[in-house]
Amino acid sequence: MGKYENLGVFLQKQRTREVPLTFREIEKITGVKLPPKAQYHRAWWSNNAANNVMTKVWLSAGFESAQVDMEARKLVFRRVIKAGEVSGGFAEAAPKPYATKDGRHPARGALKGMVHIPPGVDLTEPADPEWADLVDKKYGPEVR
Questions:
Q1: Residue 36 resides in a domain
Q2: Is the dihedral of CA 107, 109, 114, 120 positive or negative?
Q3: Are the CB atoms for 51 and 43 separated by under 8 Å?
Q4: CB–CB of 52/2 below 8 Å?
Q5: Cβ proximity of 106 and 100 under 8 Å
């Protein structure tokens, strides 16, 4: 069992859609002190699964972090309900009125094939070659 697994167990036992916690309460639940980055860097609390081990724990438990307040040292874990998932009595996610059977917007792919790039055109080439000179003149060459 990982050092943050107790947080996942705690979150899964909650019956509400939102679970507000302070950093100190999270430390009590996990039994370990939060790393310095968690104390001072808001990005540590992002919902990117590649971010850190603890992020994977709350995402696996079916929650995402929200309303992170670094000054007050608190945040809210919000339950995430995926499309087609049985909620087990929790608030249902509102159905998307525009979604097709596969959950995609009906306009997806509507512009496919509308753009034609002729052979020999370099899309990385500046549209206005004098633009670089204008930037250098206004801001200096070190800006580029």
A1: yes
A2: positive
A3: yes
A4: no
A5: yes
Closest CA to 80 of 68, 95, 90, 71: 90
- Strand 18-22 and strand 63-69: the pairing is unpaired
Contact 40, 70 (CB under 8 A): yes
Structural domain including 25 reads 5-79
The answer as to whether 21 is a domain residue is yes
Instruction: Tell me if 135 is assigned to some domain.
Output: no
Q: Is 48 helix (H, G, I), strand (E, B) or coil?
A: coil
Residues 45 and 38: their CA atoms lie apart, in Å, by 7
97-121 residue pLDDT tens: 666 667 777 788 888 888 888 898 8
The first and second tokens of residue 46, run together, are 């992002």
Q: What is the total count of domains within the chain?
A: 1
pLDDT in tens, 14-44: 999 999 999 999 999 999 999 999 988 888 9
Q: Which amino acid is at 53?
A: V
d(CA 89, CA 79) in angstroms, rounded, equals 13
Is there a domain that residue 131 lies in? no
